[in-house]
From TrEMBL:
This is Transient receptor potential cation channel subfamily M member 6-like. It comes from the Eukaryota. The lineage of its organism: Eukaryota, Metazoa, Cnidaria, Anthozoa, Hexacorallia. Residues 1-21 are annotated as: Disordered.
């Protein structure tokens, strides 16, 4: 049994080694290697290196397959794009890590690489030591058939990398990220003492909720907040007229502004009436069963009268009118 297991392990080892030799043989025969270039830094929730462009055929003019030779071939091929000051770093995949030997590359059919600056000590020193350990004798480099533009070295290369954005992140930037846009509303004020409207309006910006929380026969009510001074410490209700209500108002030969001002004037009248009623209750009925700010009363108050009218009927009549 032990001998069979040993033979099985040997067969599996030879099988894996055979799979690795095939791409190596193709690389030396065709003198090209397939490279997928990745971003210098990871991004996104998955912490992956983003792909940069499609896979490319990189000329490979060496006698042996070695990690240092792959890095040298990539540096020479991509020098016109990334600059001569960048160093190639071979990765095991889109999630890394960096490979220190040829055996750590999962598949030579497609090799993933990224380019880092030479002054990045944390990674560049590792890459430099790796190239020294694996330096192999190589034959003189032959000019590739495909000619590239001459490399232009930047005068002052930047030490900071721009943020690597995935395709999904770039697509999100094409849409409005913050859906809570504000609306500017021109407000008039009404002075009950002078019985007059203000001639100048004040502009207030409100962040209005999309869905209404209430709807009546004429208007829809929306919750709103504001950061304008004087309006920022509480929530507001913005009411918008329904289309059917606008048609009815226009039939009465009124504008929306005229109708709204009339509604506000009636509300001010009702508010003044309730404040006056509260004042009279406090002055004339001190020591009797209390009347709360919401104008509720006990059953013993049903027979009270105010200015000749039963109190209960007066309040009910007011509530019906609103």
């Amino acid at each position: 049994m032990a001998a069979q297991w040993k033979n099985f392990k040997t067969q599996m080892k030879e099988k894996r080694a055979g799979k690795r030799k095939a791409p190596s043989h193709d690389i030396l025969q065709k003198e090209v290697i397939v490279i997928q270039r990745l971003s210098a830094e990871v991004s996104g929730k998955a912490q992956k290196y983003s792909r940069i462009g499609l896979c490319e055929f990189v000329p490979y003019e060496y006698d042996e397959i070695a990690l240092s030779n792959i890095m040298s071939a990539c540096n020479r091929h991509f020098a016109s794009i990334v600059g001569e000051h960048m160093i190639c770093d071979v990765l095991a995949g889109e999630q890394g890590p960096s490979c220190n030997s040829l055996e750590q590359i999962p598949d030579l059919k497609v090799v993933h690489v990224r380019f880092i600056e030479a002054n990045d000590r944390d990674v560049a020193s590792v890459v430099g030591n790796r190239m020294e350990r694996e330096e192999q004798p190589k034959r003189p480099f032959r000019r590739a058939i495909v000619q590239s533009l001459p490399a232009t070295k930047a005068q002052s290369p930047s030490k900071a990398f721009p943020k690597s954005l995935s395709v999904l992140e770039m697509m999100k930037l094409g849409k409005v990220i913050n859906d809570k846009s504000t609306e500017s509303i021109e407000l008039f004020t009404f002075d009950l003492t002078d019985m007059a409207w203000s001639s100048q309006t004040s502009t207030v910006e409100f962040s209005i909720v999309k869905e209404p929380f209430g709807k009546g026969g004429f208007r829809e009510a929306f919750k709103a907040t504001s950061k304008t001074p004087g309006f920022q410490h509480q929530q507001w209700v913005v009411k918008k007229y329904l289309k059917s209500a606008v048609d009815i108002i226009e039939e009465t030969k009124q504008t929306i502004e005229q109708h709204t001002k009339k509604v506000v004037q009636m509300h001010m009248l009702a508010k003044n009436f309730m404040l006056k009623l509260e004042q009279d209750l406090k002055q004339n009925y001190m020591g009797k069963p209390s009347v709360t700010r919401e104008y509720t009363w006990e059953k013993s108050m049903d027979s009270w009268e105010l200015n000749g009218l039963p109190l209960k009927n007066l309040l009910m009549g007011n509530s019906q009118s609103t």
